[in-house]
Amino acid sequence: MTHKAIDESAHSLQSWQHDWLAAFARYASRYQAEHEVISLFSDFVATRADAAERSLRFGHLTGSAWLVDGGGTRVLLTHHRKLDRWLQLGGHADGDVDLARVALREAEEESGLSGLVAEAEIFDLDRHEIPARGSEAAHWHYDVRYVVRATAGEAFVVSDESHALAWCDIAALAADETADESLRRMARKWLAR
Fold first, then answer.
1. Which of 46, 56, 133, 171 could form a disulfide with 6 if both were Cys (CB 3.0 to 4.6 A apart)?
2. Is residue 79 part of a domain?
3. pTM above threshold 0.85
4. 52 is a domain residue
């Protein structure tokens, strides 16, 4: 769908869809080079009133946390049990269109940390394919990522969703050519703030 078609159908959008399109526009003003991914997210949200539903088989919105320590020099990563890779904390929206709340909830559940605080604005957008597994077909995650800060301690508890958790130095992560590219991108964004 083109941006013109989105504009013409804007009157039929739900209020949360309008809110997301505005959030993507604010994100675009900060990260102009990411116009392609922003367009993918905008088109998806504008055309799918069920975008946050996990039951949407070809893809759905998810919320993730760039969970930084009190000093802002380390990020908490999970060695994801299903994907067997080091990633940021996060998960499915399950119909909740407040993705900052989703990111915060997932960070709390997956880390056992309390006193976490999420920033209101989007920190990163990443659309990535989740491989087929069992009866679940391959599908897209439209992952909206937020900065979440640890304010009441850093002693985590590993949940059933992870093999392990680890605080990682953000500068080292940005330079690690073997790390997930989206993690490196977020590390570079964080260091540039």
1. 46
2. yes
3. yes
4. no
CATH of the domain at 138: 3.90.79.10
Bridge partners (DSSP) listed for residue 164: 79
- Do the beta carbons of residue 161 and residue 77 sit within 8 Å? no
162: number of Cβ within 10 Å: 21
Residue type, 176: D
| pLDDT for residue 23 is more than 60 | yes
Q: What are phi and psi of 12, to 5 degrees?
A: -95, 0
Kindly report the number of other CB atoms within 10 A of residue 126's CB atom: 21
Q: 90-124, pLDDT tens digit by residue?
A: 999 999 999 999 999 999 999 999 999 999 999 99
Domain with 151 in it? 62-192
Query: How far is residue 182's CA from residue 127's CA, in Å, rounded to a whole number?
Result: 10
